[in-house]
Amino acid sequence: MQEKWFYRSSKQKKNLRLLETGPTSKDYKSHDMKRVVGGLLVQTRQYPDLKEKEMKAVTKRKPTKEELKDMLFAWKVNKHVKSNSIVFAKDDVTVGIGAGQMSRVDAVNLAIMKNEDKIKGSVMSSDAFFPFRDGVDQAAKAGVKAIIQPGGSIRDGEVIKAADEHNIAMVFTGIRLFKH
User: Fold this and answer.
1) Do 83 and 126 meet the contact criterion of CB atoms below 8 Å apart?
2) Which of 79, 96, 144, 178 could cross-link with 83 by S-S, CB 3.0 to 4.6 Å?
3) Is position 123 within any domain?
4) Is residue 179 one of the residues assigned to a domain?
5) Domain for residue 180, yes or no?
6) What pLDDT, in 10s, does the model give residues 22-45?
7) How many domains does the chain fold into?
8) Which residues of 1-30 are buried (b: 16+ CB within 10 A; e: fewer)?
């Protein structure tokens, strides 16, 4: 019965994407499962450890050793924050978190608003790519020095250009950290 309904529904939706995963791991402890309308959302709870050598510097200014250390810390924190998430960190301390927003720039603004006086000189981690440069522009106004993000937007060039204009170092990880 449900397959017929789904078939009719999929015919009506032009941009519907169906993904077939094949067999899932028998290690259910490594997955987080949530019921959603019409199905089940299964996502990993484990992301690969990110090494400094796996980060790709994409801006004219490369991050300093201290910035790299803080970016790795912010990225680790970001793995545990609900999407869409932004994490600001400095000296191995989280100084701002913005999450659950519909837009990336809103997540940046929320994180800044929570602890504006401590953001200056921090690094910023984003769990997903920046679809527009506005998030980078807002982070620059707050005093962010470096950004770590997955990359992969069709507008990566514009985002990198914004970072270069603000003298912000930016690295791409190629790893999205979405957590629902």
Assistant:
1) no
2) 178
3) yes
4) no
5) no
6) 666 666 566 677 777 877 776 665
7) 2
8) eeeeeeeeeeeeeeeeeeeeeeeeeeeeee
State which amino acid sits at residue 15.
N
| pTM as predicted | 0.78
Identity of the amino acid at 178 = F
Residue with tokens 């979405």: 178
Burial class of 162 by CB neighbour count within 10 A (0 to 12, 13 to 18, 19+): buried
173, 75 contact by CB (below 8 A): yes
Say which residues have a Cβ less than 8 Å from residue 155's Cβ, sequence separation at least 6: 130, 131, 132, 133
Do 99 and 77 touch, CB atoms closer than 8 A?
no
Indicate the DSSP class of residue 120. Answer: T
Look at residue 4 in the predicted model and tell me its pLDDT: 43
**Helix (H) / strand (E) containing 148:** strand 146-149
